[in-house]
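This part of the workshop introduces the protein records we will be handling. An example says more than a description, so a record of this kind follows:
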Amino acid sequence: MSSRLESLSPPPLKRRRVSPATTSSALPIPPRRSTLQPKAQNLRIYSWNINGIAPYLDAQPAITTFFPTSSSTQRKTKPSTYPCLRACLHRWSYPHIILLQEIKIAPSDTSSLASLRRTINTPLSNDDSASTSSRLYDAHFCLPRDKHNATGFGGKVYGVCTIIRRDIAPSTTKTVDWDLEGRVLITELPDHGTVVVNVYAVNGTTNPYRDPANGKVIGDRHMRKRRFHAELRDECARYEGQGWGVLVAGDLNVAQTKADSWPELRVGKEHVRNRVDFKECFMGGRKEEGLGMRDTFREVRGEERKFTYRPRGRVWGEGMDRVDLILASQGVRVRDADILDEEMERGKSDHVPLWVQIEAGDGDRRGMEEGKREVEFTAGGQERGEDEAD
C-alpha cells in the first residue's frame, strides 16, 4: 500500500476558473529543495484510449452472486474479467493514476459523469474492498467546448479523463485555454515535483479546421495537428522551466518509426511532415527546438515490437500501430514501462492500455536552483500543424 508523502507544499494559488477545471495560464512553482526531502514513491500510471466510456459504466454483478449456493459455498464475481471500469482497476492492481482518452461524453451529460465516478468506486465482490483510500478514486474531466470543431454525435466526441487514487498527495487538475476540443488535462503533483499531462492529440486529415470563434475555415486538420504539437510543447517547456518533471501520456496519434507500425507507416506528404514535426517538438535535443523527452517504452523495452492501436473489424495482428505514448522529461526517473498488447485488454476499444512506473521524488529542480531556464518558444506556439485519428 502507498503512504502519503511527507513534504512541504506550496500555498494554494488563485487561478482563473473554467468549467470543469482551471486553465494553466499561470504556472505554480513546485517547492524548493529543503533539508526536509519528500519521500520517493513509485507511481504507477496507466493510459488508455478507451474509445467511448459508456460500455464500462455501472456494470454491477447480480445481487444473487453474493448469496451462498445450495452447497453452502459462496459464489463470487470475478473482478479480473468483469466488463466495467472498476474491473480494469482491479486487474491492474489499482494504479495510482489512470489517464483515459476519447471518453465521448457530451458536456451536458452529467449523468454519465456521475456514473463514471460511481463505477470506479463501487466494489464488484467481497474480494474487492473500497474501504481504503488506496482503492478509492477521484475523476477529473476535460470535455469539448468548441462549437465549430467538436459537434458530431451530439457532442459525444473526444474528451479526456484523469482518475487519481485518493491516497496520492494533494493534486491539482487544470485545462489549457488553447484547447477547446477536450484533448488536454494537466495534473500537478507538487509533493512529487511532477506534472502529468493527459493528451488526446489531433489526428491529421484533410478535413477542415474552423476558427473556434467564428466558424470560418482557416486550414485543415493537418495544420491544426502541427499547431497542437507546438502549443503542447510550449506548455511542457514552461513547466520544465519552473523545475517540474513532466510526463506526457496518451494517444499522440503518431507512429514514430517503422518498428511502430505494421505492415508500414502512414505515407503521404502531410503524414510525413506531421511525424517530423512531432519529433522536432518533443524528441529533439534541448539545444534544438525540441524538449528532448524520452519514449518510456523504448527506454525500457528497447526494440521490442508491441502496438497500442489494434483496429476492430480486422483479424488481430493484421494492422497495428504504436501511437499511444508515455513521454518523460529528463527530470523523471523511469523504473518500468510496458504495453498490455493483448486482445482481452483491448475490450470494446480499438486501443490497448500502456503503463509506466516512475520514481516520483521532487522532480527536476535544476531550473529552480540554477535560475529559470530560458524558454524561447512563443507563448501559444508558432504556426505549425497536427495529426490524429478521430
